[in-house]
Amino acid sequence: MRKWLLLLAAILLEATATISLRAALDHAAWFAVVAIGYTASFAALTFALRLGMGLGVAYGIWGASGVALTAVLATVIFGDPLTATTGLGIALVIGGALCVELGSQAAHAARKEGIAS
Fold it and tell me: Do the beta carbons of residue 44 and residue 99 sit within 8 Å?
């Protein structure tokens, strides 16, 4: 459970840093939030990996969730358009990350069966 909380933290920190990057275009002070957010995001992702989360799973979920969250936040905060095509793209990215996770779970189950027999 702890590795999933760390992954969630990494996603939230990455999205915060990315949104802050946009804000830094108008106010340079936001670059501090950008630097801290990305650094903390990579640290949280590293800790999730150290706790045994698979790299493909962690990176896929981190990337997909970060893209989706950033797109939604950019719409809410900056008024960026969120079109049907954008929504479809977000759904496909999330679907791809889900496929990676499900494939990883199936591989772990198959490996356990092979070891048990």
Answer: no
Among 71, 21, 23, 26, smallest CA distance to 41 is for: 21
CA distance 42 to 67: 16
Tokens of 52: 């045994």
The distance between the two most distant Cα atoms of the chain, rounded to a whole number of Å, is 62
**Separation of alpha carbons 44 and 2, rounded Å:** 11
Who's near 2: CB < 8 A, 6+ residues apart?
A: 51
pTM of the model: 0.83
Nearest to 62 by CA among 100, 33, 35, 89: 100
Give pLDDT tens digits for 30-81. 999 999 999 999 999 999 999 999 888 898 889 989 999 999 999 999 999 9
Report how far residue 103's alpha carbon sits from residue 5's, in angstroms, rounded to the nearest whole number.
21
Burial of 32 by CB count in 10 Å (0-12 exposed, 13-18 middle, 19+ buried)?
A: exposed
